[in-house]
Structure formats: structure tokens, C-alpha cells
Write a structure and sequence with these properties.
Elements lengths: L2 E7 L4 H19 L7 E7 L5 E2 L2 E2 H4 L11
Parallel strand pairs: 1-2
Antiparallel strand pairs: 3-4
Organism: Schinkia azotoformans LMG 9581
GO molecular function, one term: isomerase activity
Protein name: Tautomerase
Length: about 70
Amino acid sequence: MPIITVKLAKGRTIEQKQQFVEAVTKEAVKTLNVKKEWITVLFDEYERENWATDGQLHSLKFGEGFGKQGTE
């Protein structure tokens, strides 16, 4: 029973998440040779102020709205 955890910044739409879980589930079934109903996908979503890369918070490094293109 594969459990796939996806960590990402907040801002994706329900439609984007649905497309993503469909694609990931399909590939997991094919690659891992398991039944579709055995696949679980979990989203851990973070505010950009709670995410940092290279020693700098993403909210400061990239500014407001970064990465949200196509999500609204």
C-alpha cells in the first residue's frame, strides 16, 4: 500500500491537485505493479513564510505571489 507524500507551497487549485494525483497514481500503478485503490497521496502544504531555501525564507526571497502563475 504505497503512501505518497507531496510537500509544496500553498496556492495550487483543486483542479491542479486532482490532475496531479491522477498522474501520480497512474504512474505508481504501472511502476510498482499495485492496484489503483492501494495508492494514497497526501499533500503537505506550507505557507511561503514557513519555507526556506539557501538560508532565506521564500516569502522574502521570491516575494508575494511567486509560483502561483496559472493557479488562479
